[in-house]
Amino acid sequence: MMPEQTPISHLVVLPVALPLLGIALTLLVRGNRRVQGLLAFGAMFGAFATSCWLLAEVWISGEPVVFHMGGFPGPFGITLVGDLLSGVMVVMSQLVLAMGILYGTGCRDKCAQYPTFYPLFLALGLGLTGSMLTGDVFNLFVFAELVVIAGTVLTAISDDKKGTEAAYKYFYISTFAAMVLLVSCGCLYASYGTLNMADLAERIAQDPDRPLLPVAIVLFLVSMMVKSAVMPFHFWQPDFHTAAPTPVHAVLSSVVVKLGIYGFLRMTTLLFVHEAETVQTSLVVLGAIGAVFGGLGAAGTYDAKRMLAYSTLGQLGFIVIAVGWNTPLSLAAAIIFAFNHSLIKAAMLMLAGAVGSRAPVKTAEFARIVGLGRTVPVAGLLFVIGGMALAGLPPTNGFISKLAVFRSGLEIGEYAPLIFLAVASLVSLIYVSRAFQLIWLRPIPEGVEPKKQGDLLIAPLVLVSLCLLLGLWAQPLVQLGHDTATWMLEGREEYIRAVLEARDQLFETWQPPGQEP
Questions:
Q1: Is the pLDDT of residue 418 over 80?
Q2: Helices and strands counted in the chain (H then E)
Q3: What distance in Å separates the CA atoms of residue 65 and residue 85, rounded to the nearest whole number?
Q4: Sequence ranges of the domains in the chain
Q5: What's the rounded Cα separation, in Å, for the pair 516 and 408?
Q6: Burial 422-456 (b: 16+ CB within 10 A, else e)
Q7: Which of 29, 145, 161, 166 could lock onto 240 through a cystine, CB 3.0 to 4.6 A?
Q8: How far apart are CA 65 and CA 5, in angstroms?
Q9: Chain centroid offset of residue 48 CA
Q10: Which residues, other chains included, contact 180 with Cβ-Cβ below 8 Å and sequence gap of 6+?
Q11: What's the DSSP call for residue 365?
Q12: Does residue 136 contact residue 201 with C-beta atoms inside 8 Å?
């Protein structure tokens, strides 16, 4: 007999279950693309709505929502945990994923017409959501691999002739990251006999001197650095993201890279708290270098989508540094920046793709889209607002993000990294201005006939509107960021207690299958 779990605990299952249901439904109607798109959007938007409900529940109650799948208690079963950190990250991810699907319904890429496009897109969302809600390190590995498989196939089927090559690069580097993470799991299990995050955190705190623990920490760190494309593991990202279809690129470069950021936060505030100082120092150094390198790469590239891919490397530097500082204000800044950047970057990539869809042969290369923005002036207005947000100018949400990071650095006197971030901010303004000038202010070259129709602008319009809204009315997100930071720093014991108490309650009534009570 398996014990019943409380109705509220089932809430953490819905953000994972709805994309899974959507995959099944979209496969059933694979002959009708319009119905597929509606079902995929409905499934992802429904998952987003339940994620908002979950976030509201844990924010108001201050208690994590824990669910043991199948009634099997952890650490033997699969545990899902919704706390403030995972709630914020899932809401952020599923909002962008829903907008990505919405863009896909109005996208003119041939690959978006394939019957497997929407199921794969939902699988990408399922893997990303599961990675952030799982309470088990091994299942983090499993869900992350689902992200890799779906992302690889979606890029391989791209209209871009470089898609297959980029997919191979991503697959092989991700296989390396997966093996590293798997070996880290092996080291942790050999040392502590568990991979449940709460159980593992408690056992590491009680016995932090196991010889394999430093090895596990280094391997876990390397794996997360690959997933978030932090230097020096950044080299695959521009090629892979640029070759992906626009709706996929918008998700990859905005929220999928945040999986590594989520891993850094779990490492430094839950799993390896007493060993986190070296990790944090490394993150600050690499984040500062990455912020400048990414900006310079964006300023010197030849393609609008590639520019924005390099820009992601630079913008992630802000977040990584804030995570490394590990103060209440800096962690709040990291959450705020991660959320806002996801909206900004997804919108900018969609706008670049929409302009590229007007070219005689769809591309985002600057040489081929010079002046084509004149055919879509609305996109130009949205690009200006999004560019202001990317550069951190008021009244956009990007200004709030960068202000929070700079305030957190000034609070603790970290002036050297702030100089790197200031340079990176200036460079971002330069490359965004250059792109706008080339695409919207230059005349269309003679002999170039733009297409009369291109990708629809509904999704980037929604995202840019949110960027403005969160710049003008920033208080809710700022408060959520501060509360999440406080939870990460002060709620560690509460997280462990909630998961282990739920496990103990199940143990009291649980019996192996096949036995009568």
A1: yes
A2: 21, 2
A3: 12
A4: 7-483
A5: 58
A6: ebbbebbbebbeebeebbbeeeeeeeeebeeebbb
A7: 166
A8: 11
A9: 14
A10: 219, 222, 223, 226
A11: B
A12: no
Torsion of CA 306, 311, 317, 318, to 10 degrees: -160
Beta bridge partners of 136: 196
Model pTM above 0.85:
yes
pLDDT, one tens digit per residue, over 254-279 is 899 999 999 999 988 988 888 788 88
**Residue located via tokens 């590239």:** 301
Distance CA 201, CA 203 (A): 6
Neighbour count for residue 126 (Cβ, 10 Å): 27
- In angstroms, the CA 106 to CA 110 distance is 12
φ, ψ of residue 303 to 5 degrees: the values are -140, 135
Determine contact, residues 19/43, Cβ cutoff 8 Å.
yes
| Rounded Cα–Cα distance for residues 453 and 367 (Å) | 20
What's phi and psi for 134, nearest 5 deg? Answer: -70, 145
3-class SS at 456? coil
Rounded Cα distance, 127 and 357, in Å: 29
**Cis-peptide, bond into residue 360, ω within 30° of zero:** no
3-state DSSP call for residue 195? coil
Residue 180 has pLDDT above 80, yes or no: yes
- DSSP code of residue 271: I
- Residues 287-316: what's their mean pLDDT? 89
H-assigned helices in 271-396: 276-299, 304-325, 328-356, 366-369, 377-391
CB 440, CB 370: distance < 8 Å:
no
- For residue 82, the surrounding DSSP H or E stretch is strand 79-82
| 8 Å CB contact between 128 and 97 | yes
Query: Cα separation of 447 and 370, whole Å?
Result: 12
Neighbour count for residue 176 (Cβ, 10 Å): 15
Torsion of Cα atoms, 46 then 50 then 52 then 58, to 10°: -170
As given in the structure block, the two tokens for residue 102 are 């919405």
| 70 φ/ψ sector (left φ>0, alpha ψ -120 to 50, else beta) | left
Work out the mean pLDDT of the chain and round it to a whole number. Answer: 88
pLDDT tens digits, 362-413: 888 888 888 888 888 999 999 999 999 999 999 999 999 999 999 999 999 9
Contact criterion met (CB below 8 Å) for 212 and 191: yes
Measure the CA–CA gap between 307 and 431, rounded to whole angstroms: 8
Q: Which two tokens stand for residue 237?
A: 């990202």
